[in-house]
Write a sequence for this structure.
């Protein structure tokens, strides 16, 4: 009887030990670092588990735990809308209490932002959008900011008027006609027309 009791206690102790060490399942968290994610829709995949990644999230963890020496292979199941993500160190073998080797880097797609100019008969017009600026010469009929991120808000301002002329944005959503604002589309986008007239 005593022998049976000891054997039962030993079996229970073994079960607890195996559970703590991953014997009845994993005990290692599979963690992924994410950078540059500004668009919705990114989904990661490992061992059948799909893991949606929220915008701006720096770290995500799969809910399915892995055991020591388990192989994992994290892939991108779905790309975010308007962006492209790549993964590094996504495949390997679990060997620590926090498996954190996968790195996902995302880049938002960018497109040209174009606008029409009328009446520019003199030099000196300079447009700025944040840190970017372009100078336009007499006779120019268009302006272009070559790389604006998909879905990003933009604001274009007239920094310098051309000599002897006053230029204004037509149909601008801004309260000041020397500025125009909007949201970048998912392709080349047309901004407000800039009309220049003699002072």
């Amino acid at each position: 009887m005593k022998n049976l009791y000891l054997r039962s206690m030993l079996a229970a102790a073994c079960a607890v030990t195996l559970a703590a060490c991953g014997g009845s399942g994993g005990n290692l968290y599979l963690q992924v670092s994410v950078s540059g994610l500004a668009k919705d829709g990114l989904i990661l995949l490992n061992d059948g588990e799909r893991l949606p990644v929220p915008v701006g999230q720096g770290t995500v963890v799969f809910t399915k735990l892995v055991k020591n020496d388990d192989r994992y292979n994290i892939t991108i199941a779905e790309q975010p809308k308007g962006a492209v993500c790549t993964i590094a160190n996504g495949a390997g073998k679990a060997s620590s209490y926090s498996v954190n080797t996968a790195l996902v880097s995302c880049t938002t797609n960018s497109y040209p932002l174009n606008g029409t100019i009328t009446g520019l008969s003199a030099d000196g017009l300079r447009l700025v959008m944040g840190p970017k600026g372009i100078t336009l010469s007499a006779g120019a009929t268009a302006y272009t900011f070559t790389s604006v991120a998909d879905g990003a808000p933009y604001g274009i301002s007239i920094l310098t008027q051309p000599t002897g002329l006053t230029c204004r944005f037509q149909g601008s959503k801004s309260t000041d006609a020397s500025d125009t604002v909007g949201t970048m589309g998912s392709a080349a986008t047309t901004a407000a027309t800039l009309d220049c007239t003699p002072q």
Q: What stands out?
A: DSSP finds one helix and 18 strands in the chain. Residues 34 and 104 are 5 Å apart (CA to CA). The first strand starts at residue 29 and ends at 35.
